[in-house]
Amino acid sequence: MTDSLLIRHDDDGVCTLTLNRPNAYNALSLELMQELITALSSIKDDLSIRVVLIQGSGKGFCAGHDLKQMLGEGTEAYYQETFETCSAMMQEIQSLPVPVIAKVHGVATAAGCQLVATCDLAVSSSKSRFATPGVNIGLFCSTPMVAITRSVAPKHAMELLLTGDLINAERAESIGLINWQVDENELDSFANNLACKIASKSRKTLSIGKQAFYQQLNKPISEAYSQCSSIMTENMLIDDAQEGIDAFIAKRPPSWKHQ
User: Fold this and answer.
1) Which of these, 46, 68, 212, 237, is most buried using a 10 Å CB contact count?
2) Does residue 155 sit in the same domain as residue 228?
3) pTM of the model
């Protein structure tokens, strides 16, 4: 493992970003968040990347903000910069034109839980634990709340936010915080197979679909249908849709141009 705060590895359309602060449970220092933003931004126009996998090094996925660093700085301006940078990072994930998968082992707490909720998909070890424990130390998890309330039902979100209790992977799956929980020794293969499956699709189609999903999510149903009808019309006209339909009819594998 290198000394870099963030390790990037690209392989056949899959970009794996590893949070690399194992001695601090990959706590989101300001510098780590800035590196994540830079890495995600560089992927936007990289047509070789069709899916991003975010994971943590060491014993856990991510323990949230680096509270030692924040207390050490101790200024309002620094706190503001930290939370604004975190918010920018989460929005960068959602606006990325390719799907982002959280691969979780160990704990994902506070802003680490927010990161899981922000990713488009999430798979965890059956031994993983999740929490938004800020209320226990007098700091309500308000920014994690933004992502969590958009992933789970309101009462489930309030349960996490008001109690600060750890929940296990089975509970996290049942409330929709994660998609799958698998045996610890199957986590790597499951996440990699999932990433490769998505990476086999047309990047252009993935981009259109992800953007449309978040755009229509909170619209009234009539507006959502109107918007998505226009998007599907535009989608039908791209090269990859024409190729995909032709390949389906001809019973052959598609050859994507990613445009």
Assistant:
1) 212
2) no
3) 0.95
